[in-house]
Design goal:
The complex is a heterodimer.
Chain A: E1 11-16, H1 22-31, E2 36-40, E3 66-69, H2 106-110, H3 120-134, H4 161-172, E4 178-179, E5 189-191, E6 195-197, H5 222-228, E7 232-235, E8 237-245, E9 248-256, E10 259-270, H6 273-284, E11 298-301, E12 304-308, E13 323-325, E14 338-343, H7 347-358, H8 363-370, E15 375-382, E16 391-398, E17 404-409, H9 414-433, E18 437-442, E19 445-449, E20 475-477, H10 492-513
Parallel strand pairs in A: 1-2, 1-10, 2-7, 3-17, 10-20
Antiparallel strand pairs in A: 4-13, 5-6, 8-9, 9-10, 11-19, 12-15, 12-18, 13-14, 14-15, 16-17
Helix pairs in contact in A: 1-5, 1-10, 3-10
Chain B: H1 3-13, H2 20-30, H3 41-54, H4 64-74, E1 80-82, H5 88-97, H6 108-121, H7 123-138, H8 141-146, H9 168-172
Helix pairs in contact in B: 3-4, 4-7, 5-7, 6-7
The chains are: A alpha/beta, B mainly alpha.
The complex binds flavin-adenine dinucleotide and iron/sulfur cluster (SF4).
Residues 184, 200-206, 210, 212, 214-215, 319 of chain A line the site of iron/sulfur cluster (SF4).
């Protein structure tokens, strides 16, 4: 069904949000024969309507205003989260590295941060399944992490300009690199419930949406499968309140076609992302006996280094993150580590980052931007520890719907500052080796994580290791808010693995109850 | 924009090299003109003068001040703002008010000096305005043409992605 005309009734499970957390689970539950539906604030963005233009694609992003506080305020909007059937996967870069086993044991290894309440071996089968289902393209041998049990389904995507430069520079200093794992197709693939997904055309606009279905966003993968199994997705439906009766969830209230509606369900899965999920919980005063809702907000260390090279590099071409190195996974003097990625970039993103990052204006700005086709980028993604001083709260400023805007406090701690400095020095060295001019660095934080963390102990966490709310019967949480630590890898693949794992636990529970 | 530039831009946009959704977005932007709605006349004249110093451009070709005015009138935003700053419209108004009398008629050097002062006094608003103007500038088909950018020619995809490897239509778009 293209657009839900009638609301579903008598639901087993209602899912709120259709991103990396909500979508895999929706498909799994529907395939298990459960009556499921999803409410999604955003609308559908079919590939054939996607323009190769950043401004035209702004509608993929969550544009309700968020307030950014702290020493290192996090930009949201186009930088940090999505809105649409498919959530942030509509505009993710499709980088899909796996977490390494020690990522899950930070406290054990370093005495700070948090351990995950689960083992790598519990994620591994889901990683295997996901990489095949999504059609991840990657190298035959991946140099880091445990030996893989199943090869990547497709060969790696071609390396673009920045990737080749990074490869050359890293080789000079003896750093290993590898073509990255990307959830974008180097060969076409039949996708159950969707049809044929085409090969990536190298148009480099992953962060503005994929127009050919090559990228494994949720709409062309899990959500298509979910609908084929009878799940109903109600788009343009923004949840404004969770409803509870006698200590158990009863459903959700939402705005749809300009009117307030209610959908009832025996179980609700909240998968609205690490800002909207804690916001909804705080609005209702729910699931928060631990006081942990909204706490421990984390955003990966994401410093980027840019320069311009002699060659005509055309940074808009090729999969943006073609090359990776995890040789910096552990470094002396740092808690955790980071991975290094080459960077393609779209013109408007580059230009606005340059303006904000360097505050260059006037003729100097124009002169620099004129060199856009020669721009080469490289960045890192590194561990961010959970801190008392980083949190989300409700402000007293109402949004257009009359709900309080969220205010997010974020400041790097010592470890993040040291890591940023280490990474910047390394990348400046590498870019010096490829002869880059006008080199500049943009310290940055990426991804929104950790505001409703999982754990065994109801005193210090919001959900259990499978996503069940400690405090409220019938409520599960499945999105980036449950991450106890940030991991030193991009979060989407692990999020999808958690989603399938939660679905399996949830079907188990429902069977027991039946 | 010269007639030749306009023709070259439209020729590529109207060709089968560009998909429908991309073509529609860029054609609309190429000719976008805005009627002032948010600022008063003085404020708008001042915004325009500021915009041409921050991101040098010809307002007759690319209406950046009009674009900002239009956005504020429509009440849309970019999804976040610094918690210690007022809403965008108010922040911009304050920034413009902080400029000296008759800013529009000052010599360019004096304008730049005044802009440096408001940059230190209103750093958040200055950064936001600079970023917004830069976005409008870089997203415009005329700028893209002049900078030899052709990434919007998306219909057939790219076969050559390595350094210095160009497709024929990449080489030929842009001023000689
Ligand atoms: C530009 C960008 C690039 C990225 N690249 C990568 C990458 O290469 N690799 C990687 O691993 N990760 C990447 N990420 C991160 C990745 O996209 C996220 O980790 C992942 O999508 C998070 O999943 P989620 O389910 O928590 O949230 P989301 O995917 O954001 O989904 C949340 C959904 O809930 C909906 N929603 C929110 N509130 C409500 C409400 N009240 N009512 C109804 N619906 C609601 C939203 O509209 C949204 O669709 C990137 C992110 C960005 C912003
Ligand atoms: S680079 Fe490939 S995967 Fe990314 S948006 Fe373009 S076609 Fe899709």
């Amino acid at each position: 069904m293209d657009r839900a005309e009638r609301l579903p009734e008598d639901l087993d499970v209602l899912v709120i949000g259709t991103g990396a957390g909500g979508a895999p689970l929706l498909a799994r539950l529907a395939a298990a024969g459960l009556k499921v539906a999803a409410l999604e604030a955003g609308v559908r963005h079919p590939p054939e309507e996607i323009a190769t233009d950043e401004v035209a694609q702004a509608g993929l992003f969550w544009m309700d205003e968020r307030l950014s506080a702290g020493q290192d305020p996090v930009p949201f909007g186009r930088n940090n989260s999505g809105r649409g059937v498919g959530g942030s996967t509509l505009h993710y870069t499709a980088y899909t590295p796996r977490a390494q086993p020690d990522d899950l044991k930070l406290r054990t290894e370093f005495g700070v941060g948090e351990d995950w309440p689960l083992e790598f071996s519990e994620l591994e089968p889901y990683y295997d399944e996901l990489e095949y289902f999504l059609g991840v393209s990657g190298p035959a041998e991946y140099p880091w992490g445990p030996q893989r049990r199943r090869a990547y389904r497709h060969p790696p995507l071609p390396l673009n300009g920045a990737a080749r430069l990074m490869q050359r520079a890293c080789a000079e200093i003896g750093m290993r690199t590898s073509p990255a794992a990307n959830a974008a197709l180097s060969r076409s693939q039949e996708q159950p419930g969707y049809g044929t997904r085409h090969t990536c055309t190298n148009r480099g606009f992953c962060q503005a949406g994929c127009s050919v279905g090559a990228k494994a966003s949720m709409d062309v993968t899990f959500l298509a499968l979910a609908e084929a199994h009878g799940a109903q997705i109600v788009d343009g439906a923004q949840v404004t309140a969770l409803t509870v009766q006698g200590g158990r969830m009863t459903g959700a209230e939402f705005l749809w076609n300009g009117q307030l509606h209610h959908l009832g369900a025996r179980t609700v899965v909240l998968a609205a992302g690490a800002v909207e999920t804690p916001r909804l919980l705080l609005l209702g005063g729910l699931a928060n006996s631990s006081g942990q809702v909204g706490r421990n907000f984390m955003a990966h260390v994401g410093v980027q280094v840019w320069g311009q090279v002699e060659e005509d590099l055309r940074p808009y071409k090729g999969i943006p993150g073609g090359l990776i190195s995890e040789d910096t996974h552990r470094l002396p003097g740092l808690v955790g580590g980071y991975l290094l990625q080459s960077l393609g970039v779209m013109p408007v993103t580059y230009a606005t980052q340059y303006a904000r990052g360097t505050l260059t204006w006037g003729p100097d700005l124009i002169e620099h931007l004129r060199g856009y086709t020669h721009v080469a980028g490289i960045n890192v993604l590194g561990e961010c520890l959970p801190y008392e001083h980083n949190f989300l709260e409700l402000s007293d400023e109402p949004d257009a719907r009359g709900l309080p805007k969220p205010r997010i406090h974020f400041s790097f701690g010592e470890n993040e500052k040291k890591m940023t400095a280490h990474a910047e020095a390394l990348m400046r060295d590498l870019w010096g080796r490829v002869g880059a001019r006008d080199v500049w660095a943009l310290p940055r934080a990426a991804h929104t994580l950790g505001t409703a963390r999982m754990g065994h102990d109801p005193q210090t966490s919001v959900v259990d290791p499978f996503g069940r709310a400690h405090d409220l019967t019938g409520l599960w949480i499945c999105d980036n808010s449950t991450f106890p630590s940030s991991l030193s890898v991009n979060p989407a693949l692990t999020q999808m693995a958690l989603s399938l794992r939660t679905a399996d636990a949830l079907t188990g529970d429902l069977k027991v109850r039946a | 924009m010269t007639q030749a530039e306009r023709e070259a831009i439209l020729e590529l946009l109207n060709s089968p090299q560009v998909t429908g959704p991309t073509r529609r977005a860029l054609q609309e932007r190429l000719d976008a003109r805005f009627v002032r709605e948010f600022f008063d006349e003085t404020g708008f004249a001042r915004l325009r003068a500021v915009a041409t110093r921050l991101v040098p451009h010809d307002p007759a070709e690319i209406d950046l001040a009009g674009m900002v005015d239009h956005r504020l009138h429509a009440g849309s935003g970019d999804g976040w703002r610094y918690a210690d700053a007022p809403p965008d419209g108010e922040a911009y108004r304050r920034l413009l008010r902080a400029l000296p009398q008759a800013f529009e008629t000052l010599a360019p050097e004096a304008q730049d000096a005044a802009l440096q002062d408001v940059q230190s006094a209103h750093p958040r608003a200055f950064e936001d305005l600079l970023a917004e103007l830069t976005e409008g500038f870089m997203a415009h088909p005329l700028t893209q043409y002049r900078f030899g950018y052709v990434g919007f020619a998306d219909a057939q995809g790219w076969l050559h992605v390595g350094p210095g490897e160009l497709e024929p239509w990449e080489e030929h778009h842009g001023p000689r």
